[in-house]
Design goal:
The protein has helices at residues 21-31, 71-87, 116-127, 156-166, 182-191, 237-248, 267-273, 302-313; strands at residues 12-16, 38-42, 48-52, 60-64, 92-97, 131-135, 150-153, 172-176, 197-204, 212-218, 225-233, 253-261, 278-282, 296-299. It has a seven-stranded mixed β-sheet with strand order 10-9-8-11-12-13-14, with helices on both faces. The chain has a five-stranded parallel β-sheet with strand order 1-4-5-6-7, sandwiched between helices. Helix 5 links the parallel strand 8 (172-176) and strand 9. Helix content is 28%, strand content 25%. The chain is built from eight helices and 14 strands. The protein has 326 residues and is α/β, with parallel strands linked by helices. The longest helix has 17 residues, at 71-87. The relative contact order is 0.12.
């Protein structure tokens, strides 16, 4: 006999960063597997140490990390976790990033600027990641920054199902908060049965981040529920100014649907006092008690992530989760 034949066994192991361990636990409950116990702490000078308490040799490893506030700390922890898995002889390492960090820095606007989204992809690859699984990238081109498979999930179905159920029977217009979101808004109008589309014409000073000048609304919004759709809410300036413009155009109600609730200060105060009826988001990022509002509805992304992880583990098709949409 000229060869040795081994039984092909696969083991799925789930690993949680400290950014949002509750999400990893929820994903594990759907999958039926608990996150692998680990020791993670920081030295006095801020250096991070990670060690997994169980053998990872030959495993299909899935590292779940929500890159929340303190972005650089959680990015570094993720890289260290990947390195620990690589050196522990994990067979394949998939990094599950519900929110991809630095995604807004995906191109150069002017000379001498970085493309930080590409840098993050390079760091993940160098650390040892074989695959990335993420939700609602700021721009789809980021998939091309990583030299390997990128599974790009969409939260639209989760958000749209809730909106349809809550606002059934009321005339609705989908609103893109700027021209860059029009393509996403078009997909929303298709998902909601062909309702009208509008967008806010705005300007932004590239030298002043998080500052927006909204000008006017283009589209039919009078006496209609206006659904503003976006991938993230950071300081809340964009959507709050958009809501003001929509109410000036005689909108009946303004509802916001967004995947990632960053809610950097002063977002909570702006949303609380803004002319917005409801803000619907997913739990890709943790929301501490001080950032939770009565008008804020949080939907779980865990079932979608768990299904995608299962498809990757079984060498299935993640695209089938969206009816072939990519």
């Amino acid at each position: 006999m000229g060869s040795i034949v081994a039984e092909n066994r696969k083991s799925l192991m789930l690993f949680s960063g400290r950014g949002f361990p509750e999400l990893a636990t929820e994903i594990g409950e759907v999958l039926g597997v608990a996150p692998t116990p680990s020791d993670a702490y920081e030295f006095a000078n801020g250096e991070i140490f990670v060690r997994f308490r169980e053998s990872v040799r030959g495993s299909d490893a899935f590292v779940v990390q929500s890159i929340t506030h303190g972005v650089n700390k959680w990015v570094m922890e993720t890289l260290i976790m990947i390195d620990a898995l690589k050196r522990g002889s994990a067979k394949r390492i998939t990094v599950v990033l519900p929110f991809y960090p630095y995604s807004r820095q995906d191109k150069k606007h002017r000379g001498r600027e970085p493309i930080s989204a590409r840098l993050v992809a390079d760091l993940l690859k160098t650390a040892g990641a074989n695959r990335i699984l993420t939700v609602d990238l700021h721009t789809a081109q980021i998939q091309g920054f990583f030299d390997g498979p990128v599974d790009h999930l969409f939260a639209m179905d989760i958000l749209a199902e809730y909106v349809q159920r809550k606002y059934a029977g009321r005339p609705m217009t989908v609103v893109a908060p700027d021209s860059g979101r029009v393509r996403v808004a078009e997909r929303w109008t298709d998902r909601l049965g062909g309702c009208p589309l509008a967008f806010i014409h705005k300007t932004r000073d590239p030298s002043k981040p998080n500052q927006v000048v909204a000008n006017r609304v283009v589209g039919d919004v009078e006496d209609r529920v206006c659904l503003i759709v976006d991938d993230m809410i950071d300081t809340g300036g964009t959507i709050c100014k958009a809501a003001e413009i929509l109410h000036e155009a005689k909108a009946a109600d303004v509802v916001v649907a967004s995947t990632h609730a960053l809610l950097s200060d002063p977002a909570t105060e702006r949303l609380k006092n803004g002319r917005i009826s409801e803000v619907v988001v997913t739990n890709t990022l943790p929301l501490p008690p001080e950032k939770q509002l009565d008008k804020l509805t949080v939907l779980s992304i865990a079932p979608l992530l768990a299904r995608a992880i299962r498809e990757v583990f079984d060498d299935g098709s993640v695209t089938t989760l969206f009816g072939g949409l990519s």
